[in-house]
Amino acid sequence: MTTPALKFPAQDAPASARAPRATVVALPSPKRKPLAARLRPVLGVIAANVVPPFIVLMLLVGLWQVLCSSPTSPLPAPTTIIQNSWELISNPFYDRGGLDKGLFWHILASLQRVAIGYSLAAVAGVGLGTLIGQSTWAMRGLDPLFQVLRTVPPLAWLPLSLAAFRDGQPAAIFVIFITAIWPIIINTAVGIRNIPQDYRNVAAVLRLNPLEFFIKIMVPAAAPYIFTGLRIGIGLSWLAIIAAEMLIGGVGVGFFIWDAWNSSLIGDIIVALIYVGIVGFILDRIIAGIGAFVTRGTTAA
Amino acid sequence: MSAYLKLDHIDKTFVRGATTTQVLKEVTLEIEKGEYVSIIGHSGCGKSTLLNIVAGLTTATAGGVILEGREVNAPGPDRAVVFQNHSLLPWLTVYDNVRLAVDKVFSGTKSRAERNDWTLHNLELVQMVHAKDKRPGEVSGGMKQRVGIARALAMEPKVLLLDEPFGALDALTRAHLQDSVMQIHATLGNTILMITHDVDEAVLLSDRIVMMTNGPSARIGEVLTVDLVRPRRRLELVANPTYLKAREAVLKFLHERHRFVEAA
Ligand SMILES: Nc1ncnc2c1ncn2[C@@H]1O[C@H](COP(=O)(O)OP(=O)(O)O)[C@@H](O)[C@H]1O
Ligand SMILES: [Mg+2]
Fold it and tell me: Which pLDDT does position A3 carry in this prediction?
């Protein structure tokens, strides 16, 4: 479950491949290559990964600037945004009380809700997924139900959730929970079902008790699947919290966007969207990184 | 006195939906302590099924397994299995794979330090200490099988069960591992039940060779005692008349009297 963007080509491979070319003039020398020569391939890799997205980004921003620079344009151009929303961009940490805070505080509030709802979903999802994966009857009974429930859009849960909790905060957390839990349950169950019979035989010969079996065999064997579910779950959580906050209000980046729309601060909306995108990306990377770390070696057997 | 390990009138019938297949019929075999017994037969005749019944991983339809006078019908470390495909846990290092077994079997009787020593000792028996911190994915097939053997040995089993342990290896690696197993058997005096489809392997390693008829309803066709002194060296055996005669007997059984029709 590694992702292409994180994969750098092995760094000594290009080094050795390029070495002869760099030392063609001199006779083969046993000495270590100078620092600059050793750094060059590394820099090359960085350049290869940074330069293309940078160029594309510049082109897009340029295009946007050209398209939106007329005074009648419905959307602001990048330069206009920088002018109008400069405080928002330059100081994410200001706090003037109430809802008038920098984006950092709004995002922090959203992240707190996600952290609670998602953690609960992760624990409950792995637990339920294990149960379903282990028991044929639980699978038969619950799987159709889950398959239907998982297609319910996150926001459709919100009214019900508000009715049940009578408060925005737990209602939003519940929406995160119910959104993130399905992919975690389903992927965990598939992972548990796919545990090779061989591992079960090893556990049987060793007479591992159910708890030992769960910790030492099931979790590591199903970890690649579990992390796939967790990763889908975190993405959905972040999608859901923005939408839910637009409706429930209070501090949070979703409400911030909605509030900006009501105040016709289109530039603020765009700045917030960029933050939301970057935070979502980082969340995804964190789960993917944990997954890659935990499941290292598991796939190569 | 009765045998150390006894397979007593074992029948096995698989029921899958409406079809029932009898795989094993009336398999009875007695194995002495320290004996090395091989089971040979064509593929699909039920060798693995029989071994799994001894291991307790499959239950017999009728009959049973008696070890040291007591019936065994659940898996346990007293009958350690070396599986054909090594079955190491890929997320654990070589050391941890063996240590898992050591920790489980000796949790009450050995201290931490003793368990560490015992793990290393068993890795040493199969010459795998040098790779103890590697993961199974990073070592060769032969090495994985060595670790599988170390893990089984580390349980100090009463019977060591080997299911075609060298089947997936190239000829040279296989010869190396066979020598290692012979060496270990000579040193520790384990009781070993091994499945194989390799005639030379069976003759080289075994005290007795159990030949199975083709399925369905496979039985024990013949049992051959291999009267070769130990230690046996494969090079010296090449021209040994006893070796050649044993080899011929097994080949004749497999290819004349119980030709594998589907393989023709
Ligand atoms: N779980 C099972 N259900 C139904 N049939 C099985 C099962 N396991 C094995 N068999 C059948 O039993 C026969 C013997 O299998 P096996 O013991 O694996 O043979 P061998 O190890 O000698 O090659 C085969 O025909 C196989 O299809
Ligand atoms: Mg088999």
Answer: 42
From the CA of B44, how far away is ligand 1's center (Å)?
6
Question: What domain range includes position B218?
Answer: 1-38+45-77+196-264
CB-CB under 8 Å, A206 with B91: no
Which residue among A198, A205, A208 sits closest to B55, beta carbon to beta carbon? A205
How many angstroms separate the CA atoms of A16 and A197, rounded?
Answer: 43
> Does A206 sit within 8 Å of B104, measured CB to CB?
yes
Alpha carbon of B152: minimum distance to chain A alpha carbons (Å): 10
Segment B192-227, tens digit of pLDDT: 999 998 999 999 999 999 999 987 899 999 999 999
B184 inside domain:
no
Rounded Cα gap, residues A110 and A115, in angstroms: 9
Res. A298: pLDDT tops 70:
no
Q: Do B75 and A223 touch (CB under 8 A)?
A: no
Whether residue B154 is contained in a domain is answered as no
Residue A79's pLDDT band (cuts 50, 70, 90): confident
Share the mean pLDDT of chain B: 92
Whether A27 contacts chain B with CB within 8 A? no
Ramachandran quadrant class, B28 (left: phi over 0; alpha: psi -120 to 50; beta: rest): beta
Distance from CA of A139 to the nearest CA of B (A): 20
Residue in A201, A217, A223 closest to B83 by CB: A201
Tell me, what CATH number does B235's domain have? 3.40.50
Residue B213 lies in a domain: yes
Contact A160, A147 (CB under 8 A): no
> Does the CB atom of residue B163 touch ligand 1 within 6 A?
no
**Which residues is B64 bridged to in the sheet?**
B8
Domain count of the fold of chain B = 1
More confident call, A87 vs A62: A62
Nearest alpha carbon to residue B92 among A216, A201, A195: A216
Contacts of the segment A69-77: beta carbons below 8 A, 24+ positions apart: A75/A266, A76/A266, A76/A267, A76/A270
B202 inside domain: yes
* pTM, rounded to two decimals: 0.78
Contact with chain B for residue A223, Cβ under 8 A: yes
CA–centroid distance, B217 to ligand 1, in Å, is: 11
Could you read off the pLDDT of A134-170 as tens digits, one per residue?
Answer: 888 888 888 899 889 989 998 899 999 999 999 989 9
> What span, in angstroms and rounded, lies between the C-alpha atoms of B94 and B137?
10
Using a CB cutoff of 5 Å, list residues around ligand 2, an ion: B 48
Cβ distance of A205 and B79 shorter than 8 Å: yes
